[in-house]
């Protein structure tokens, strides 16, 4: 395997991981920001007020985007399986 091929493979893996994580993390960050503004406006400093909605939203994102996440991982592994014979052959 040439350095260019290995670099491309690692770059594709990192890009795939970032795409999958952004689907789950960004909505949670936005909700956390909204809740933080609400807490600052009302002076409520309850820890569960920030944790529980973010956890529920992350789980909902897994439910709704799970099919897309699995399809993205399957596509990456299918690409990997197509590359492997050329690496060792």
From TrEMBL:
Gene designation: fliQ_2
Subcellular location(s) per record: Cell membrane
InterPro entries reported for this sequence: Bac_export_3
Protein name: Flagellar biosynthesis protein FliQ
Keyword annotations of the record: Cell membrane, Cell projection, Cilium, Flagellum, Membrane, Transmembrane, Transmembrane helix
Family (UniProt): Belongs to the FliQ/MopD/SpaQ family.
Protein species of origin: Rheinheimera aquimaris
UniProt-listed Pfam families: Bac_export_3 (PF01313)
Annotated transmembrane regions: 12-39, 51-70
Topology relative to the membrane: Multi-pass membrane protein
């Amino acid at each position: 395997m040439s350095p260019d091929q290995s670099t491309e493979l690692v770059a594709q893996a990192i890009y795939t991981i970032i795409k999958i994580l952004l689907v789950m993390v960004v909505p949670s960050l936005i909700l956390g920001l909204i809740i933080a503004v609400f807490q600052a406006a009302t002076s409520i400093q309850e820890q569960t007020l920030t944790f529980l909605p973010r956890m529920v939203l992350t789980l909902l994102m897994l439910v709704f985007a799970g099919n897309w996440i699995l399809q993205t991982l399957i596509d990456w592994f299918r690409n990997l399986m197509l590359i492997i014979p050329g690496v060792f052959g």
